[in-house]
Amino acid sequence: MLSRLMSGSSRSLEREYSCTVRLLDDSEYTCTIQRDAKGQYLFDLLCHHLNLLEKDYFGIRFVDPDKQRHWLEFTKSVVKQLRSQPPFTMCFRVKFYPADPAALKEEITRYLVFLQIKRDLYHGRLLCKTSDAALLAAYILQAEIGDYDPGKHPEGYSSKFQFFPKHSEKLERKIAEIHKTELSGQTPATSELNFLRKAQTLETYGVDPHPCKDVSGNAAFLAFTPFGFVVLQGNKRVHFIKWNEVTKLKFEGKTFYLYVSQKEEKKIILTYFAPTPEACKHLWKCGIENQAFYKLEKSSQVRTVSSSNLFFKGSRFRYSGRVAKEVMESSAKIKREPPEIHRAGMVPSRSCPSITHGPRLSSVPRTRRRAVHISIMEGLESLRDSAHSTPVRSSSHGDTFLPHVRSSRADSNERVTVIADEAYSPADSVLPTPVAEHSLELMLLSRQINGATCSIEEEKESEASTPTAAEMEALGGELRALCQGHGRPEEEQVNKFVLSVLRLLLVTMGLLFVLLLLLIILTESDLDIAFFRDIRQTPEFEQFHYQYFCPLRRWFACKVRSVVSLLIDT
């Protein structure tokens, strides 16, 4: 009896798995789940831990053994999706950015979105001009340390924060000046709300970039925002397509297709190449979910989408959550006392350390940070007010950044703030544009933004670590292979056509084989099934059986006997 109890308890322990989820403030939530637990169960545990009701904007991200990022699907088993050895490590992140974050019902939801956008700002996903960057950083400063106090905040106190990938002394002085003179008296909640309102107006708000290449082999970043589909090249937005103009998303292998229908019945197909088929499928699924969330009026309108026009080919996927309009309607019905938010005593972050946690962390030496441009100074030109959602223009870095310090630009009345004395280098861009030399810093950043080749530790946002020589050599080899792989698009198209024809032939032969088996069962077997009996009694089947099948059977038997006799004689 004791042995049975011990064996039963050991089997129950084998069906339980430990999960660790890194939250937006870099704290960790650990729980135990059953082997057959769905993603929804884990997500509900997290939301209960966070006291979060407006949870449809958030999701759980993980990295599979092949180093490809995924969003956890709530309708499927957690263990089967991760395909890795326990304990499992995941991240809680904003999946669908609110179109108007300031309109969120509860302060706890706004605070979590604030933490996500703060991470985006640090990791280079949120690009902005220097004036905007200083204001955003000042809001963060006011939210975390409150009003400026000369006794507590000595000269250079803003340098203790790491707001962006690269800082400069001039930018730090500007941040401190705004914090001292303009934000006094604002509570943390007010500062966070103003931060969200400002961030929402930026071009790259809500961008989670997917590295790809266009048909010409040029590097690009694809992303989905609350307003539509965007394509970034360098620090320029070269495409912006509203959700109501996107008619179809499709992928085949590493090729991603976007079908666009614009005014005057103008149709466009945009084609891009992802680094791997897994990355392309992840891009496709993200597009399907974002389109359903932001475009549809009701979740009942969601349909299962196939990546191919043929029923036997490609992947099928269905978005399983509520849409944005339903989420807003549900939020308006929330009636409870606002939950308490614990902002004080923040957990030290490896990516965004607080002023109370010592010097900021960075892989870039301080002296070098003061001698380079930061890409946020003049990132993207404003296109939000444009009436056109078609490709606005394609430009190089020469159009975005000036090679030397100038006091004004030809196409802008706003004075450019330059935070360095050296020329801009594409490798120093937060959202880099590949150049002929392919610097190692650029390659590392591209891999981090992609997530397709990041480790689980990198998914924890520890991007500041410096790669070893072997890792840098491997990074260079992979990037060169990727560049060479897109050099012959015509050959790839031919290969895809041949594979499609072969698949069609195999399916046709399979169907013919099934029909042949059914015919043999009908004519040769004695199965007395109602379905078979009705077919056998039809005049057409009797005519086929006696006029065609029986003679064919006799001919085939004769041939077999002749071949057998020939083999015996020899």
UniProtKB/TrEMBL annotation:
Map out region (Disordered) in residue numbers.
Answer: 344-367, 385-407
* Residue span, FERM domain: 17-298
Q: Which GO terms describe its cellular component?
A: adherens junction; cytoskeleton
Pfam families listed in its UniProt record? FA, FERM_C, FERM_M, FERM_N
One BP annotation, GO: negative regulation of cell motility
List localization entries.
Answer: Cell junction, Adherens junction
List, alphabetically, the InterPro entries matched. Answer: Band_41_domain (IPR019749), Ez/rad/moesin-like (IPR000798), FA (IPR014847), FERM/acyl-CoA-bd_prot_sf (IPR014352), FERM_2 (IPR035963), FERM_central (IPR019748), FERM_CS (IPR019747), FERM_domain (IPR000299)
Main subcellular location: other
Which residue ranges does UniProt annotate as crossing the membrane? 497-523
UniProt KW keywords: Cell junction, Membrane, Phosphoprotein, Transmembrane, Transmembrane helix
- What top-level branch of life does the organism fall under? Eukaryota
Q: Which GO terms describe its molecular function?
A: cytoskeletal protein binding; integrin binding; protein kinase binding
Q: Where is the composition biased (Polar residues)?
A: 388-398
**Entry keyword Phosphoprotein:** yes
Q: What does this protein do?
A: May be involved in regulation of cell migration. May regulate cell-matrix interactions via its interaction with ITGB5 and modifying ITGB5 cytoplasmic tail interactions such as with FERMT2 and TLN1. May regulate ROCK1 kinase activity possibly involved in regulation of actin stress fiber formation.
Please state what the protein is called: FERM domain-containing protein 5
Q: Which organism is it from?
A: Sus scrofa
